[in-house]
Amino acid sequence: MTTPPCHPFQKLCCISQSGDIHLLLVATGPHILSLDLKNGGIVSKWPNDAVQSAERQSLEELGNGIVDDDPPAKRRKPNLSKRQQDEQEDDSRDSSISVEFVSERAKGQRRKKKKAVEPVLPNVSHIIATLDGLRVVATTAEDKCIRVFELGSSGQLTLLSERHNDRDKFGDVYALPLHPSLEKATALPSKPQLQKTKPMKPSASELTVHTKGNLEALRQQKLQNASASKKTAPTFEHRLILGHVSLLTDLVVGTDPSNDSREYILTADRDEHIRVSRGIPQAHVIKNYCLGHTEFVSKLCTVPDLPQILISGGGEPSLRIYDWLRGTCVAAASLEEDLKHLISSSAFNGLISSGIRAVSCIQAMKVRDTDDLGDVIMIVVAFEGIPGISTYLFHPEKCLLKQDRQYVMDANVLDIVLLKESGLMLVSLDNVHSPLSTKEPTSHALAPAIRVFGLKLEKFDGEQQFGWVGYDPATGSHGTVHNGSFEDIASKLNQTLQSNDIRHEIELQSATKPNALYSPLGEFLYGLENLRKKSQGDGQEQEAEELAVTHPEER
Amino acid sequence: MDWSTHYPAFVCPDQDMEAGQPRRMSKQVEIADVGCGFGGLLIALSPLFPDTLMIGMELRTQVLSYVTNRILALRSQHQPQPQSQTQQPSTDPSSLPSPSPPSSSFPPGPLQNISALRTNTMKHLPNYFHRHQLSHLFLCFPDPHFKARKHKARIVSAQLNAEYAFVVRPGGCVYTITDVEELAGWIVGHFSGRKVDGEEEGDDGEETVGGNGADKTKGVEELWERVSEQDLQSDPCVEVMREETEEGKKVSRHGGRKFVSVWRRREDPPWPDEVC
């Protein structure tokens, strides 16, 4: 191998600002790039080299190079979703109307052992933009930092604030003001000191304690020194909005189609539930649950043109479509066979990491079909560690969900964005790992890190239908697509994304255990299979029995 | 969810057996005992509401099989006619005797209205009940989880109280009892939204949903109101909860104290756009 591998683009995010500005944000390792979707050029890169070296230094000073040696995915990954209320005209910068949801994914196990390692910049795990496209929020995985950027009219990223979160919590959703107010941020840290003077009072006497375990807990509580170190609350303003008992996997915001001033928060967890709660400040009022998944719910997706529809994907793998306001499932499909088909047509089989099959990405947009069925939603689905995508068509009026086509890629799909206006689909690929594997380094020549597709109306199965036409960087060829030519932008994007300025070289470490599903990088890029419940639980709490998922309506 | 094996006396008569379809019930469950233990509460409540279905929910497999056997044995003891030769106690609900045709002897025999199932209620409550299905939900002598870092595992929290509000109908109640004073304070704090003496700030789970100090927005506590002492006096459920549960008896024997609080579900608050 001549060139070391580069970090793939783990997250894509498209932004339309007012006017005609379309930008693509790309996260590659610890970097965020903004690209102009008109000319494919890089507008801005964060952190730039100056910032980076300064941060490196401060990291070294701060921690003396000491970090937890947990593998990255063992830590919580902040999960972001956000909305901005319709206050765009009122361009008051410090308006705290904007609320951002931060939900946390976490794995419970934490090891206390620490060792000195080379400080590394934390990887960006999520990027999301406000509705008006003026602010961007990004989170990093290892240090659980939430950063807010201003996005200039030509796409420059300017860091506005950063907040570090070190709470060991999961399953909860917090609201944070988009712009932290300085006064509150400084007022909060004094709190923990006050409480240290509180006398320690055991909460039970021997009279009230019944079990051996409780007795032991009580004994320890008594031993505990009043000065015992306390977990400190985040030093920034935050408000608990709602909580699940189990790990949260995704969060989207829905709007009541008959009353667009009423918003709901839709949250998914690893225990097969999707909860529909009222929006802030009434998120404690649960409207209903969307049930029916039999494995963890990995992904939620709403369609801007059809606000009543929620699409969800899970670890079965399956796709379910809900009328979320009523809590009813209007269509569902098992994707097991489609996934098998995709794997067998990818021509890489033999390498497949067993057990991997969760839906990792869902994108949807309204297209108009030609067979007089009215609106049709095109749903694009990617699976964890699979080099290809599967598309589905959903007819809302008929509640009909059918499989459409499959597109094989030369590397595993990481993220997808659809650009409705221009009829483009961008797919980021994992060109570091071998296709169908989440831990073996690839032996193939480096695949492009991103592939561009254009929506085309063409004959398929004897009918005029929409399909995706891929831009081939080698030949530059494509067909005539629906919205004119995308060749130009595709070739420019490809050129830009392969340039040396944005390469973030990495060293691919091999998996620590021989039977591990992921390499350390793979765990960061994928990691969904960690949500799957292990079949043989350790002892008393047999989760398997709880999987006898029931539905109250079926009484 | 197929309830017919739990309450054979309440299966609708004259149904065609459809493959894969649970049989329709004449009633739905309205009372739930979360962490029912050995079933003392259910057995004592059963004659108080003979026409109301009650379910005990228990996480521990062995405890569940005990309470299931106990209920079946009691049912067959109370069988008016000696037709109990088929009623063998069984641990597996699926092998229960098939529902007998609703007897001409209406109302159903005693203890036909109680049953128990094994589940993790903290996780799966919405899988068993639809919105506003329950009139009574009991949380009797829950695990106190003394360690601060375990407080998230407590059965009362801002997060879970929102789920209880989903399954309990407006006017319905959550009944709580504990012998641990600190936990009693915790429960009151989390249903009322008020900080309670002795509760340490900064602990996990200390926050109330929606409420944070000076913040005026209401959290989950706006869905609950405490039932007055006077109303509790006239509620037979409270007496049963104090005296008939196994834990309640144990605490009495030890001379311990019992802290009761009952919370009535309010109507959902109006949407902000309904207020203006």
How would you describe this protein?
The complex is a heterodimer of chains A (555) and B (276). Chain A has helices at 49-63, 182-187, 191-195, 212-223, 336-345, 487-498, 520-525, 543-546, and strands at residues 9-16, 22-28, 31-36, 42-46, 66-68, 77-83, 99-105, 114-116, 124-129, 135-140, 145-151, 157-164, 172-177, 239-243, 248-255, 263-269, 274-278, 286-290, 297-303, 306-314, 318-323, 328-334, 359-368, 375-383, 388-395, 400-408, 412-419, 424-430, 450-460, 463-470. In chain A, strands 1-2-3-4 form a 4-stranded antiparallel β-sheet. In chain A, strands 6-7-13-14 form a 4-stranded antiparallel β-sheet, with no helix packed on it. Chain A has a 4-stranded antiparallel β-sheet with strand order 9-10-11-12, with no helix packed on it. The relative contact order of chain A is 0.12. Chain A has a domain at 9-91 and 100-167 and 176-181. Chain A is globular. The model of chain A is unreliable at 59-99, 104-118, 182-202, 225-231 and 536-548 (pLDDT under 50). With 555 residues, chain A is mainly beta. Chain B is of the alpha/beta class and 276 residues long. Chain B has one domain (31-77, 89-201, 220-268): Rossmann fold. Chain B is built from 9 helices and 7 strands; from the N terminus they run E-H-E-H-E-H-E-H-E-H-E-H-H-H-E-H. Chain B has helices spanning 40-45, 61-77, 121-128, 158-167, 181-192, 229-233, 236-243, 246-254, 272-275; strands spanning 29-34, 53-58, 114-118, 134-140, 168-178, 224-226, 259-265. In chain B, strands 3-2-1-4-5-7-6 form a 7-stranded mixed β-sheet, sandwiched between helices. Residues 82-106 and 197-215 of chain B have low confidence and may be disordered. At the A-B interface, helix 3, helix 4, strand 14, strand 17 and strand 18 of A face helix 3, helix 4, helix 5 and helix 8 of B.
